[in-house]
Amino acid sequence: MPQAPSTRWCPTPEQLMILEEMYRSGIRTPNASQIQQITAHLSYYGKIEGKNVFYWFQNHKARDRQKLRRRLSRHHQLLHQQLHTLDEASAPPPPPPSCLPHYLHTPSQLLHQDANQQAMNLLSKLEAEGISEMATTSSSMNYNNDWMTMMMAGNTGIIPPCCKPLETLDLFPTKSTGLRDECSTSKSSSCSTSTN
Amino acid sequence: MPQAPSTRWCPTPEQLMILEEMYRSGIRTPNASQIQQITAHLSYYGKIEGKNVFYWFQNHKARDRQKLRRRLSRHHQLLHQQLHTLDEASAPPPPPPSCLPHYLHTPSQLLHQDANQQAMNLLSKLEAEGISEMATTSSSMNYNNDWMTMMMAGNTGIIPPCCKPLETLDLFPTKSTGLRDECSTSKSSSCSTSTN
DNA sequence: TACGTATGAATGAACG
DNA sequence: CGTTCATTCATACGTA
């Protein structure tokens, strides 16, 4: 017998259409109640669960962001190359990628034009990284989280009651996820616990 | 590079087993010393840090609770639906399989919920940490249970202030947040949307 | 047959 | 603690 049933939810065209329309309308991360309603609506067109809606939005948003990120990194690469090339010529202004009216913070955000906001949000992040490119080198994360170590080291009971060690101000607010391309798909450490 | 800068902990099966066992045994929020011990023990089976254990319990508990919440909200929703249905006494709409619906339910009401987003932010105080199953003693673990027993004994012994050795399930948490995650790998029929 | 893509699902990490 | 993000896994479909 062939593979068992697909196990996973498969959106019907109608469901997909509605979902995309909602996404285009600005819904990115519906909260619990929204998900409930959406699920209720979509259940009319086929079997669907809350988690499906949840995952759908999560994935859609994430992948949208992914594309954007890649594009931007490309652009930055190109720009850097250009800068490098024009090094002698003293290229004055690093032109912003795509000028978007990065303003709208209106409560009617859910109605239209949300991608812009998200894009800008992401953009600024990447911008900071890209501009401050610095030495990427071993970008194995500056994860020097001593908080746990510190907390657990030594006395476990005499932790001063009132304060978490105030966050040492970061030099860069960008947590620098590395923004590496997923092309390389380094599956070196494949922790596939595939009990599947 | 043999080891990619994955930076991300990936639990080995043994580690996962132990963690789950401990979780089932009732450990939900290990304190610093417990985390330390757990980490120490698990480090035998692979690289692991305190924060990994910490995050693991955080996530596991959170997602467990999400599931519970979702179930409960669904029940509530169903109840509501039943009430409404009874009230309306209208026949349930049969889902149109193949053809497009006469008209798409435009999710208009869903679009203007920006204000409603914060609607359900209150309520919800009680938590239900469903600890149902106790460890199935001597099930599949050959490890020295000494340390674990000791730790858990310490757990039950150290349980300080007010709370329970084992949390009991709340009947009706007046909360409807999160219905997002769900874990039940529900086997459903394969979907063939392809025009194959 | 082998690879590339699209996407549902899962989870480690982190934020607010 | 609940929520969100980033990454990865697993699988179906398409193509050379």
From TrEMBL, chains A, B:
Pfam families listed in its UniProt record: Homeodomain
Residues of the Homeobox domain: 2-67
InterPro entries to which the protein is assigned, alphabetical: HD (IPR001356), Homeodomain-like_sf (IPR009057), WUSCHEL-like (IPR044555)
DNA-binding region in chain numbering: 4-68
CDD domains in the cross-refs: homeodomain
Compartments, record wording: Nucleus
Ranges annotated as biased composition (Low complexity): 185-196
Main location: nucleus
Family: Belongs to the WUS homeobox family.
Annotated protein name in UniProt: WUSCHEL-related homeobox 3B
Organism: Dioscorea cayennensis subsp. rotundata (White Guinea yam)
